[in-house]
Write a structure and sequence with these properties.
five-stranded parallel β-sheet; single chain; Rossmann fold; alpha/beta; 5 strands
Length: 182
């Protein structure tokens, strides 16, 4: 199995990375690509609509390579901490840059073929409030890449409790979900 992890945490060995590591333990032998959104060169979408007709963005940056890696994957994992109950800006910037792919599919009246699975692994320092707009952002992004959204798995209150059981339990629930045939 080929797994692409879109990691969006400024802390290289923080709680989000810890959650990813717990999750990936269950996929030993898989090919894993970790795309660190804090290390790539991606410009923000400026809404110029140049991609509307061509499907190509005017920016020549790392986004084309990111899309290739995500499209090759059998499973896509979005991994990020919540900042003020939202995903960090670098993750949103990558999602916003999917507009050329959107124009080639939904914009052309087509739907992407859903042939892989996707999940979100999320950490939060305080109590995470269930945010369906965040779920929808993850779902639409993953669907555009041909992945079903299998859910968001959250480890919260890490500022006051970094207990390993929370990370193990969230990782186990995520693994069970992506390996199920629902």
């Amino acid at each position: 199995m080929r797994i692409s992890v879109l990691l969006c945490s400024p802390r290289k060995n923080g709680n989000t990375k810890r959650l990813i590591n717990e999750f990936l333990k269950h996929f030993e032998g898989s090919s894993v690509d970790i795309i660190d959104s804090y290390s790539v060169n991606v410009s923000g979408c400026r809404g110029c609509d140049a991609c509307k007709d061509t499907g190509v963005c005017v920016f020549n940056d790392d986004m084309c390579e990111i899309i290739k890696k995500l499209k090759k994957a059998d499973m896509i994992v979005l991994a990020f901490p919540l900042y003020f109950d939202a995903m960090p800006a670098p993750m949103k910037m990558i999602i916003d840059r999917m507009q050329p792919l959107y124009n080639l599919t939904y914009g052309a009246g087509k739907r992407p073929e859903i042939n892989k699975k996707g999940i979100a692994l999320i950490t939060a320092g305080s109590k995470a409030v269930r945010d369906y707009s965040l779920d929808n952002t993850c779902k639409y992004f993953l669907n555009l890449l041909g992945a079903s959204f299998e859910g968001a798995f959250v480890v919260d209150r890490t500022d006051i409790d970094e207990g390993s059981d929370k990370f193990l339990n969230a990782a186990k629930a995520a693994v069970e979900r992506v390996l199920s045939n629902r």
